[in-house]
Amino acid sequence: MTADVWVELEQAARRVMEQAYVPYSSFRVGAAVRGEDGSVVVGCNVENASFPAGICAERAAVASAVARGVRRFTHVVIATEADSPTPPCGMCRQVFVEFATSGDLEILSVTRDGASARWRLAQLAPSPFTTDSLSHH
Ligand code: THU
Questions:
Q1: What are the respective helix, strand and coil percentages of the chain, to the nearest 5?
Q2: How far is the CA of 136 from the centre of ligand 1 (A)?
Q3: pTM above the 0.90 mark?
Q4: Span 22-40, mean pLDDT?
């Protein structure tokens, strides 16, 4: 994958971060996922007065991609305004496991200042519960 594609994903994540609806945390997050077909789909966090009803940017992006028929992802960029790059939460890791491409998923987190951190999903979710787990009962 060329650097250009990371740049495109990063710009998309930064742009959608501005749409975040965060009246309770003031913590804006934007996410851009890249499908195996090269499509780029974005999402932002959307909070709610009933706090647990809020959704993270990453899962919003995945839901939007699935609604477009994109079900296999290769790369994700997460943009926040935190001082240090932040990893995806446990629920988002679990959702990524469901839709990651077979060759694993690359995750890049970036801050406004340009700091970044990179992981593979297998590092962040080393022993996941998967669709296969359901067949072992
Ligand atoms: N959040 C995300 O959107 N993605 C993450 O990776 C971590 C947390 C959101 C949830 C909530 O709206 C706010 O950030 C603070 O937790």
A1: 35, 25, 40
A2: 33
A3: yes
A4: 97
Six-digit token string for 100: 């990651």
Instruction: Give the ligand 1 atom nearest the CA of 29.
Output: 3
Q: How many residues would you count in the chain?
A: 137
Catalytic amino acids?
A: 58
Burial class (CB in 10 A: 0-12, 13-18, 19+), 23: exposed
| Pick from 84, 10, 1, 16: nearest CA to 56 | 16
**Tens digit of pLDDT for each residue in 73-89?**
999 999 999 999 999 99
Report which ligand 1 atom has the smallest distance to the Cα of 92.
Answer: 6
* pLDDT at residue number 56: 98
